[in-house]
């Protein structure tokens, strides 16, 4: 009886391995398409971090909570082929509906970012208060640390990796090797597959794919932005630091969001 049990277990184990091998052999890899992302901002947490000990700001915060949901959502697209990605808002999303806190650029700036993965260069358009910048620079080099954690996002099995950017911003990313393009939302790149999920826990922001449309993309969908004041990231940082020099500690969080 024990021998039969062992033989049965061995056969079942072999069948499972065979099925996994067949699935892996016929797995379909997506090389071009458009991914829909939802960016979610925890407004309660973000505002709470800003108000300090001001009784006026505390009252404004309580009023905001009575009139607004905890999370604000923004919709973005990411078009990609084997060499280029383009990330852009689905529509004009200036955070005008946030009342007293709506003009904070750390909530959302409606960035458009095109990344040339071969040349390792990006072109981004950012609207910061009254100014629009056109930023051309090399792709940010991120030192990712891989983990054994995984989760499913938009129907794809994704593996987790962690990193620090701008010296202090902790990033959690989930990528899939079923889309063999080293891209992702905003300026997050550098993993062995497409990034379908990003969480910035201390910034109270997440980006997660909700749909992957597997199709050819046109040159227009991958075209870089052309309007704005031309700068690189070093020049942008210098100009922003000069503009925010009298803003105190509040400027630090704003500056980080503008440079992400």
Summarize the structure.
This protein has 260 residues and is of the alpha+beta class. 26% of the residues lie in helices and 36% in strands.
Description:
- This protein is an alpha+beta fold.
- It contains five helices and twelve strands.
- A twelve-stranded mixed beta sheet has the order 7-8-9-10-11-1-2-3-4-5-6-12.
- Helix 2 runs antiparallel to helix 3.
- The radius of gyration is 22 Å and the shape is globular.
- The N and C termini lie far apart (64 Å).
- The N terminus is likely disordered.
Give the helix/strand layout.
Layout: H1 2-25, E1 33-42, H2 43-51, H3 55-67, E2 71-80, E3 84-89, E4 112-116, E5 121-128, E6 131-138, E7 145-153, E8 156-165, E9 169-176, E10 194-200, E11 205-214, E12 229-231, H4 233-243, H5 250-259
Helix pairs in contact: 2-3
